[in-house]
Amino acid sequence: MYFFSNTASKGNFIGTSDITGKILYLNESNKKNLNNKIIFIESADPGYDFIFTRRIKGLVTKFGGANSHMSIRCAELDIPAAIGVGEKTFEELKDKSTIRLNCKIQKIDSII
Predict the structure, then answer these.
(1) Whole-prediction pTM value?
(2) Considering the domain boundaries, does residue 64 fall inside one?
């Protein structure tokens, strides 16, 4: 007997910061004005390394793990992040205006 269970992903939280900020869902058409925003990207791969040349406030990814490139870079640069939060959480939050990313208690809340 084989079965598949799709469990909710909690994500891997980097750091212990508690931040609130405006979000930006990064795609091909909006790669400008990343400064002081919590960036949302689909995957945690090195192709998005350019975001670290900006002053981003935080990072949230749909896919990725504790040892992913983005996890390591965020830890190195002391940027609060939630890596690999899963499809459900990511889709619920990516179009919001403002969120609270509390890495200490490993929770993300929508403010607006």
Answers:
(1) 0.89
(2) yes
